[in-house]
Specification:
CATH topology of the largest domain: D-Amino Acid Oxidase, Chain A, domain 2
Distance between the termini: 44 Å
Number of strands: 20
CATH architecture of the largest domain: 2-Layer Sandwich
Order of helices and strands: EHEEHEEHEHEEHEEEEEEEEEHEEEH
Radius of gyration: 21 Å
CATH superfamily of the largest domain: D-Amino Acid Oxidase, subunit A, domain 2
Strand content: 25-35%
Number of domains: 2
Largest sheet: 9 strands, mixed
Length: 385
């Protein structure tokens, strides 16, 4: 094999986006994954992900979400596959809420981002939510932010489509091969696997929940891993009330825990996907699934009194991994010990919607010397005194 420009380690949401964009830009690029993506061993699975344009986790993220929507549409045209479905998105909160999504003031931050960037939206009082979406049993003091261009992404087709296009542009993709070390070699970097070794000018480490294994002992504690459970519940009410067009993607900050969910995207037999988040016990990427949120208890405590028409019978459950930083933000920076390695942890449970644009920004950084979108907010230095 000729000497490579870049090796991408980890081919989930961000890694698949990066290798696609690098190959499209003409780089000689190799991608390696220990499994066969898309797969269910990390963070990039579970059928669907919410996508929204006004980002409550930080105004600096809104340009990434907007650009990602453009890229998803480009990939759809190239592959003929449906990736992004616009359903509208509803965020419900109230002055009395005791739960928040990823960051405090999520509702207020979302509204501020929408107003600053001109993202179309509506504000709804409780009566307005009931008229528009009677499935939600909101309290009188609840308020809603509705974004008509929000929707959901199909996880596996997004990853599969980018890997397909990467191959078409000349990328080499190796699966079921485990990277055991990344080491500098002069002005190059060597990626050692359980089979062989590869050498390149640059490497991108987009390793998800395995991030602590690829940084030094002082940096590793910044990345705590939590296993999250998602459930698909049967419907008691008419399927029409929960189909895209009648039911939005939603995030509800209520008492206790926040919940989020989707329309019935796969018909009546597919049920409706609703989940919460828990941060009571850390885990590791290689630990067996455990501490899953009990579906029956979640339905009783968070769904039964809040959303009408959703039955208690759980059709299926999955778990995925959140890699959470202290500020619930991303890390996109040079590796603390290797100048020609970019370390990417687009994590904390809200990255998929941004991943297409992050992959493009990484390719621009390596090929052009600078990304067009601002990556400065994601530097590791923000965690250092």
């Amino acid at each position: 094999m000729r000497e490579l420009d870049t090796i991408v380690v980890g081919l989930g949401a961000t890694g698949s986006a990066a290798i696609f964009q690098l190959a499209k830009a003409g780089s000689l690029v190799l991608g390696i994954d220990r499994f066969s993506p898309p797969h269910d061993r990390g963070s990039s699975h579970g059928d669907t992900r919410i996508t929204r344009l006004a980002i409550g986790e930080g105004h600096h993220l809104t340009p990434f979400a907007c650009r990602s929507h453009e890229i998803w549409r480009e990939i759809e045209r190239e592959t003929g596959k449906t990736l992004l479905t616009v359903t509208g998105g509803l965020i419900v909160s109230s002055p009395l809420t005791t739960a928040h999504t990823h960051v405090p003031q999520f509702f207020e931050n979302t509204l501020a981002a929408a107003e600053a960037d001109g993202v179309p939206h509506e504000l709804l009082d409780a009566a307005g939510i009931r008229r528009r979406f009677p499935q939600f049993r909101v309290a009188d003091n609840d308020r809603g932010y509705y974004e008509p261009d929000a929707g959901f992404l199909r996880v596996d087709p997004c990853i599969r489509g980018q890997l397909q296009l990467a191959r078409q542009f000349g990328a080499v993709i190796i699966t079921s091969e485990k990277v055991i070390a990344v080491v500098p070699s002069g002005d190059r970097v060597v990626v050692e696997t359980d089979r062989t070794a590869y050498r390149a000018r640059h490497a991108i480490l987009s390793v998800g929940a395995w991030a602590p294994d690829f940084v030094d002992a002082n940096t590793a504690p910044l990345f705590r891993v939590f296993r999250q459970a998602v459930h698909w519940f049967d419907l008691d009410g008419p399927i029409a009330d929960f189909e895209p067009g009648r039911f939005p993607v939603f995030i509800w900050e209520g008492a206790g825990k926040a919940i989020y969910g989707f329309p019935a995207v796969d018909g009546a037999r597919g049920g409706i996907k609703i989940a919460t988040e828990r941060y009571d016990a850390t885990t590791t990427a290689d630990s067996p699934a455990s501490n899953a949120e009990d579906a029956a208890e979640m339905h009783r405590a968070l769904i039964a009194g809040n959303i009408s028409g959703v039955g208690a019978r759980c059709l299926r459950s999955e778990t995925c991994l959140y890699t959470v930083t202290p500020d619930a933000g991303f890390v996109i920076d040079r590796h603390p010990e290797m100048e020609n390695v970019i370390f990417v942890s687009a994590c904390s449970g809200h990255a998929f919607k941004h991943s297409a644009a992050i992959g493009e920004a990484l390719a621009q950084w390596l090929v052009e010397g600078k990304s067009r979108l601002d990556l400065n907010p994601f530097r590791l230095a923000r965690f250092r005194p």
